[in-house]
From TrEMBL:
The active site is at C84 (nucleophile), H184 (charge relay system), E186 (charge relay system). Keywords: Glutamine amidotransferase, Hydrolase, Lyase, Pyridoxal phosphate. L-glutamine binds at G52, E53, S54, R111, I139, R140. This is Pyridoxal 5'-phosphate synthase subunit PdxT. Belongs to the glutaminase PdxT/SNO family. Pathway: Cofactor biosynthesis; pyridoxal 5'-phosphate biosynthesis. In the presence of PdxS, forms a dodecamer of heterodimers. Only shows activity in the heterodimer. It catalyses: aldehydo-D-ribose 5-phosphate + D-glyceraldehyde 3-phosphate + L-glutamine = pyridoxal 5'-phosphate + L-glutamate + phosphate + 3 H2O + H(+); L-glutamine + H2O = L-glutamate + NH4(+). Catalyzes the hydrolysis of glutamine to glutamate and ammonia as part of the biosynthesis of pyridoxal 5'-phosphate. The resulting ammonia molecule is channeled to the active site of PdxS. Its EC number is 4.3.3.6, 3.5.1.2. HAMAP family: PdxT. GO terms for biological process: L-glutamine catabolic process; pyridoxal phosphate biosynthetic process. GO terms for molecular function: glutaminase activity; pyridoxal 5'-phosphate synthase (glutamine hydrolysing) activity.
Amino acid sequence: MQAGVIAVQGDVSEHAAAIERAARAHGEAADVVEIRQSGTVPECDVLLMPGGESTAISRLLAREGIDEEIKAHVAAGKPVLATCAGLIVASTDAKDERVETLDILDVTVDRNAFGRQKDSFEAPLDVEGLDSPFPAVFIRAPLIDEIGDGTGAANNAGDVEVLARWDDDPVAVRQGPVFGTSFHPELTADSRIHDLAFFDQVEVSAQ
Ligand code: GLN
């Protein structure tokens, strides 16, 4: 499996380790490539869009022409896991003109809604499809404040499913091949979110 981690900015190595772990658990090998320029996304089976700073990530994706490649990847039905800033960039509207969203996930997000860096926290989270809580790390996390009817996203992949909520607000969603989380599943040793996003079933049990 060729896995591309969008590496223009953000926590790249953690995602690389998480997809390698998840693949191993499914008897596959993930060949991880870091993406900083156009030309590589078309060779990837799956993509990871890490956390970081969404303004910087969206600007660099557009400058390098990677934005259109990610949209084509999703239009072809290939999976993407977008976490935190990655979720913001994947959304249809980040309510911030500095973020050029990719429109691959029909949600509206509110950047930094969970507070500033000092307000970051970890919480056990019930996630649909997992039989025990997931240790979710929130770092200046975006709030998903509107779930679209599925027609807002350019890929038109149908309904947006809410897979987890924190304080009633959605924090994990899926629309067809695109899985988005407000939190950082790559920052724990638990690879079950990567399992759900890329293998559709969970092999690795909670740590
Ligand atoms: N708040 C950041 C942003 O708006 C995202 C934070 C993160 O990815 N940990 O881009």
